[in-house]
């Protein structure tokens, strides 16, 4: 009770919602996209097939997939005037800052897909977001490192196209290693959706006001950036680098357990998973696959990560609080091996999560019972009182 309002214990948050897209059983460590287990999709499917599944609810037939891939492919270029948009950023701008600004600005260029009441415009906006995120992400990276932009190519698959836009230069031929491209594609699948996490809830809340999809995705990118959320992959790799050697792990485990120390094990723990994040297992396997393909025999950070996991999973603090590695624990090591700097890790998370944000936004705007989101609060401030003239204040 706050003296004015009596707290109604029956009060439930209006932020919760119903969805048919993704199911998580946190106790079991289960993750399903439209009913399909994440490991089956990651090991047997590809990212654009997963995009189709998340958007439309069913795995595509061959004809449906070919049509979807064709439509995405032909939306990968961005308005040429946008390439000058990047020049407004300082070279040392964090690529996530560039992503937030550039994605939000898409609504200034694509006026024919901002009316959310028009199903055709919603479909075009969805395709544009999925198609253009790799191009924008690669441009943010190229701008950051001072290299020329590389245009997408229509003869390459989604992930190969992305890796080429990031790592090729005009001066020489560049062929993407298919094993690495397959690994990138699988990493995108793992990050595609995760029910009502903070950034997806942000997109839904922004979309519930009728804001255009580009603005809603920009809001999701801003929320994902935080180190407690999508920024954890960058923070986890920085943490492993700071630990530096296996013999310093106990010192950091002790700090993570100390309530007076704000340090947390990055890439560990989860609001929903009270078991091993199923994505983390697949990410660890992918990490070994990528390092093996690149001939990296012993990555010191991987050794630290595996030893840290072993120690933590046998420590009563982590066992009692059910803290396990999450998707961000091994992703940084893998992304660094693929050639990305740490400040691009969350950009890659945002690139992959765009389909989840769009699918959840689409589900919400197409729900006729949908109303504007309006979470309430428990007021704990001052009771009502009268204004005091300034010369009477003490
Ligand atoms: C993502 O929501 C999603 O689905 C997100 C995501 C997605 O795909 O969208 O899965 C992506 O964001 C994964 C999480 C990435 N973040 C990190 O790895 C950052 C490190 N993790 C922690 O900050 C933390 O685990 C959170 C933020 C992820 C969850 O925080 P909660 O909700 O407080 O976790 P909890 O309630 O399970 O914590 C229980 C206890 C708490 O201590 P007590 O209050 O009980 O004393 O465990 C402690 C926490 O302080 N704890 C940790 C810890 N995580 C939780 N202690 C040390 N190290 C940690 N990493």
From TrEMBL:
* Family (UniProt): Belongs to the citrate synthase family.
What keywords are assigned to this protein?
Answer: Transferase, Tricarboxylic acid cycle
Any single GO CC term annotated in Swiss-Prot or TrEMBL for this entry = cytoplasm
Q: Which organism is it from?
A: Roseibium aquae
**Spans annotated as Disordered:** 372-394
Active-site feature positions: 270, 328
* Pathway where it operates: Carbohydrate metabolism; tricarboxylic acid cycle; isocitrate from oxaloacetate: step 1/2
Catalysed reaction(s) here are:
oxaloacetate + acetyl-CoA + H2O = citrate + CoA + H(+)
Q: Known SUPFAM superfamilies for this protein?
A: Citrate synthase
Q: Which GO terms describe its molecular function?
A: citrate synthase activity
**Gene Ontology biological process:** tricarboxylic acid cycle
In Swiss-Prot or TrEMBL terms, this protein is called Citrate synthase
User: InterPro entries given for it?
Assistant: Citrate_synth-like_lrg_a-sub (IPR016142), Citrate_synth-like_sm_a-sub (IPR016143), Citrate_synthase (IPR002020), Citrate_synthase_AS (IPR019810), Citrate_synthase_bac-typ (IPR024176), Citrate_synthase_sf (IPR036969), Citrate_synthase_typ-I (IPR010953)
Pfam families on file: Citrate_synt (PF00285)
Can the keyword Membrane be found in this entry's annotation?
no
| Tagged with keyword Glycoprotein | no
